[in-house]
C-alpha cells in the first residue's frame, strides 16, 4: 500500500491515530528526542537529524520492574510479576538504522527463552520510518554494515521525503492499519511519485558515507587481531562511561538487582536496569578476578561483539551504523577507525587479497 | 600565541632528557576537527601534539588513570609524568595534590595559557549567525581573540567570545598559576566583565546568576531540576570524566565497588546501597546532588561534566553553586595552591558559623 | 502462556550440611520445590538461586539428574547472596530458576573410562556425573576420582567420597597435610601425574580453580589425552542466565547458555578471556 502525504498534513494524520500514543522527534531542552505529540500540532515536521537517543527505550526501557516481592502473613515469600500492558505506541521518523536495530533486539529478546517484558512492549510498538535522502550525520555508516538509508527492516511504514510531500509505504499489517486510520490525510500515489522516490533512493545509496573497509573480511580479521596491542592503545583515552552503549540502538546489556523497600518483612522489587560492558567491573567475579580488567579488553569486547561475535552467531553485524557512539564519545573514540585499524593490521599481506 | 613548534620542542626535550616518563597531551582525533587526549612516551611522538580551541578535555583525569594503573600493577614510578594543563586543568591537579592523591614531585606541569581566548563550544556554533555544522569542520585554530574555523570548502574567522564555552567566558585563570614550565602569556587585557551576554566575557558565576533570576522560587527550581533529572540515563559520564571523582568506591553507585581477593563475604554483604542504578527521578536526584556536595570546594569548573552529558543537563549550575558557597561562606578558592588544605578537611577558628542553628 | 523466564519458583531448604568451615565456608543445601512441577536437569547444568532482597547467584546443580526428590547445591560464602544462604535454617524458602546451560554428553561416554579431576569447590559441578556413573556402573569403564583441597578441612563431600571407593578409584590430596593425613601431599595435577591414568578410551572431566585446570590440562596432554577427551566447566559473572544480559560471554558464546560445559577442543577455539 503506497500513498502520498502532503507535508502540511502530517499533523492531520497524527490526529487521526487516536488509538495510538504517537511519539515524534522534537528539539527539547537542547536535544532531539522522541516526545509524545497530540496530533494537529502546528508545524509538525520531520526535519530532524537523528535523535540523541535511539527509540530502543520503547521496547527495552532503562528500568523494568520484573516482579515485586514481599511476604505472606506466615512469612512465605510472595512474588507478584509485573509484566507491563503498555498502550499502543507509534514512533514517527525512525531512521532505517534504528529500524534494523530493532530486529537485532528482537533476536536477542525474542528467540530462545522469549522475554515477556520485551514482548509486551514490542507487541504494542510500531515504527514509522523516514528514509535518509542524505546521511543525517557525518558519522553515519549504515551501508558498510549491511544496512541502507532506505532500509525497511524493523519498520512498519517507510516515508520517503519528496520535498513537498512524502511517499508513504506500508510494510506490515500494522503499517497498513496506521495508514488506513490516516486515510483522510493521505492521497493516491502515482507513477511519478514512485519514480521520484526511486530516484531519491538511488541518490541516497550513492551518497558518500564513512566506510568500514572490506566489511566481509572484518569478522575474521578481528578474530585474528584479538591479541593486538592496538586495543590498549586505541582505548587509552576511554573514560569508562556508558555513553556509547546507552546511546547505541542495539546494545542490550543489563543488570538485575533487588531494590529493597523495607526490611521487616522484606519487601521490594527485582529490577532490570541498563548496564554497560564499558563499566570497569561489568565482568568482575566475586573473587576479585576480572576477565576484562583493562580498557583495551573492554573496547575489544564492544567492537568484537558488534562486528564479530554477533556476526558469528547470527550472520549479520550487530552495529547498524547510526554513528551515535562516534558523535557522543567524550574523547572521540571512533568505532569505524578502531575496526579499520585492527582489521588492517590483521590483514594478510598477500597480493591475492586486494 | 603559542607556537605549536615550541610545544613540540619543549615536550620532545623533556622526553629525550628523561625528565618525564610520559606526557599527557592532545592529538588530532579521527572525528575530524576535535582533539583527543593521548599519552605519549617517545620523543618522536611529540610532533603529534596539538593545541587548539578543541583541546577542551581536562587531562588531569589521566593522572588519576595513570596512578590507578600503576597501583593495580604495583609499579612505582621513577620519574614524574608530564601533562599539558590549561588554567582550569592546573587547578584540578592542585586539588589532587591538596588531597594527597598525588605528590607535587610526581607531576611535571606543562602550563598552556588560553591568553585572551578559550575553548570552543560546538553547541554554540549551530545556533550562531554562521550556522556552522560542527560535523563539517576540519580544523579550528587560535588567532588572538578570534577563532579560525575551516571546513573543506570554507574558512571563517569570528570573535572567540561568541562561541566560547560558558566556563571560559567566566574564567578567572586563563593562565595556569602552578606549573613547571609555561607556554603562552598571562593575558594583559580581557574585556571588562558583565552579566552573561552572548559574545562577551562574563563575570564569574554569570550562568548561575542568570538561572537564579529566571527560576527564582523554590517551586520553579524544583520544576526545572525535576525536568532535567528525568532525562538522566545514568551513563555516569559526568562522574567518569571528572578528575575529582577518583573514589574506588562511589557512594552514589550501589554496584561498583572495590573487590580484591581479600575482600570478605561479609564486607560485600554489608555494602550499603544508598542509590539504586534505576534512572528514576529520585535515584537521579540522589546521585547528582550527592555528587555535587562531594565536589564542594573541590570542583574547579572545568565544565567537562556538562560538556559530555549526552542529554545536556546543565550540571555546571550545581557545581558552581557549591563553588560560590565555598567562596562566599569560607573565602575558599578551589585549587589555588598546593599548600592550602582541602576545604572540607580543614577548619579555621574564625570560620563563619552563623548559619549553624 | 510461556513461563516468565525471570520469575523464580519457590523451594524449601530441606537439609543443610556444613562442608568446609572458615572464611570461605562451603555449605551443601538440598532444595525441594514446594509447588508446581519444578524442573529436571542434566549433568553440568546450573540454577539461579534467589534470596529476595539480596539477589540471585548462579550455582551448579550438584545432585544427579536421577534424583527427583531434591536438588543439591554446594555454595561457598563469597558475597551478598551466598552469605544470605549461609545464614539460612532448614525450612527456609528461597527462589530457584533453571535449569541453565548445556550439559556433559554423558550418553556419549558409555563404555569409556572416566577420570574425574576436581579441586576445592570444583567437585560440585562434576559430582552429578560421578553420581550418575556409579549409579549406572555397568554403563561405564573404570571410574577414577582425583580430588584435593588446601588442607584436610577443605575437602568437601568427604563421607560421600569414601562411599565411592570400590565402585571408583579415589585419590585424595591436600597441599598442607595435618597429622592424620595418609594420602597424597601436594597439588592435584601432581597427584594426577603420579598415578598416570591411561588415555585409551578415556574421558577426563576436570573442574576447580583456574590455575589448577591449566596445569591439569597440561598434564593430561603429557599423559596422552587429546583435546576432544578433556572436558571442563567454566564460570563467569552472570545475571540473567539466559544469554540476554550480555555479561558472561567468552567470545561469541554465552557461558550460561552455550556453556558452562566445554571440551578443551571447543574451549580453546574461543578467545582466551575468562
Describe the structure.
The complex is a heterotrimer of chains A (354), B (357) and C (274). Chain A has helices spanning 10-16, 96-110, 116-122, 173-181, 191-206, 218-224, 230-235, 243-247, 295-314, 324-328, 335-346, and strands at 2-6, 21-28, 31-37, 63-71, 77-81, 89-94, 125-130, 157-161, 165-170, 187-188, 254-262, 267-274. With 354 residues, chain A is α+β, with helices and mostly antiparallel strands. In chain A, a hairpin with a 5-residue loop joins strand 4 (63-71) and strand 5 (77-81). In chain A, helix 6 crosses helix 9 and helix 6 (218-224) packs across helix 11. The longest helix of chain A is centred in the C-terminal third of the chain and has 20 residues, at 295-314. Chain B has helices at residues 4-16, 60-73, 87-98, 122-127, 160-163, 166-169, 206-214, 218-231, 237-241, 265-270, 281-294, 304-308, 315-330, and strands spanning 23-28, 35-40, 81-85, 107-112, 139-143, 146-150, 155-159, 181-183. In chain B, helix 8 packs across helix 11. The model of chain B has no long low-confidence stretch (mean pLDDT 90). With 274 residues, chain C is an alpha/beta fold. Chain C has six helices and 15 strands. Chain C has helices at 80-86, 123-135, 158-164, 188-195, 210-222, 264-267, and strands at residues 9-20, 26-33, 46-51, 55-60, 71-76, 93-100, 113-119, 143-149, 169-174, 184-185, 202-207, 230-233, 249-250, 253-254, 261-263. In chain C, helix 3 (158-164) links the parallel strand 8 (143-149) and strand 9. The longest helix of chain C is centred in the middle third of the chain and has 13 residues, at 123-135. Classes of the chains: A alpha+beta (354), B alpha/beta (357), C alpha/beta (274). At the B-C interface, helix 10 of B face helix 1 of C.
